[in-house]
Design goal:
With 236 residues, this protein is α/β, with parallel strands linked by helices. It has helices spanning 4-27, 35-39, 42-55, 60-79, 85-108, 111-117, 121-124, and strands at residues 127-133, 138-140, 146-154, 159-161, 167-178, 181-185, 191-199, 202-205, 219-227, 230-234.
Length: 236
């Protein structure tokens, strides 16, 4: 597990070197192929973000969908046929978001929680889910044995208030943000361990805390993926 960040960095590094080499070939006309045209494109960017999502091991479903969308949008040039891009763009985007929402729900929710909560009503209150698509709001979580949660923000976002909650051991909150944002409001003494992968975005802890204030019995583990969006951790 400790080697994963190094492996991910190495793979991203290889991809960047490959892209640079291809641009170099194009500048000096080493190959009669328009590498720059294909590399500097938002369609290729989708594929690149998908690859990073796959190798980050945080959300493989998102990675597969983004790569597939990138190749679909490139297919007219690759296969030499034409279609009305404006007519197909939003249907494909909606289909992609739908696939992400369906399969992300199955792969992200911890089995130790999701498998139990169908048989125990109390456990169901200890795992929260928040979905914000083209909108958002405020959600108050008051569980005294919070086992985890799932936050999904797509073209929207929510404020998740956890100030009255108490995290259980190994509490994991998974975050997926795509062109949106989310805010976690937690007490100053909580320990937040973030392993969120950000691509053209960020997830920042903006609390005014000191090390002596931290309570090691109140730990939240954040993981997930932020793409063209952001998140904040605050205490108010």
């Amino acid at each position: 597990m400790k080697e994963q960040p190094t492996n991910r960095s190495a793979i991203v590094g290889v991809l960047l070197i490959l892209a640079g080499a291809l641009i170099f070939f194009d500048l000096f006309n080493i190959f009669s192929f328009p590498f720059r045209y294909y590399i500097f494109s938002w369609k290729t960017l989708l594929i690149a973000i998908g690859i990073v999502a796959l190798i980050s091991n945080h959300n493989k479903v998102v990675g597969v969908v983004l790569i597939a969308l990138g190749f679909v949008f490139w297919s007219p040039q690759i296969l030499d046929y034409h279609y009305s891009f404006s007519n197909l763009f939003w249907p494909l985007v909606f289909i992609g978001i739908g696939i992400i929402l369906i399969f992300n729900r199955r792969t992200v929710c911890p089995s130790r929680i999701c498998g139990e909560r169908s048989t125990d009503e109390n456990i169901s209150n200890d795992f929260f889910e928040d979905l914000a698509v083209f909108g958002g709001g405020t959600r108050n979580v008051v569980s005294k044995n919070l086992k985890g949660g799932q936050i999904t923000a797509i073209f929207g976002g929510s404020d998740i208030v956890l100030k009255e909650a108490q995290p259980a051991p190994n509490c994991i909150i998974d975050v997926f943000v795509l062109f949106g944002g989310t805010k976690l409001i937690v007490p100053d003494d909580w320990v937040i361990k973030s392993n969120v992968v950000s691509i053209f975005g960020g997830f920042n802890d903006k609390r005014n805390i000191a090390s002596q204030q931290s309570d090691t019995n109140k730990v939240i583990n954040l993981k997930g993926l932020v793409i063209f969006g952001g998140g904040e951790i605050k205490s108010y």
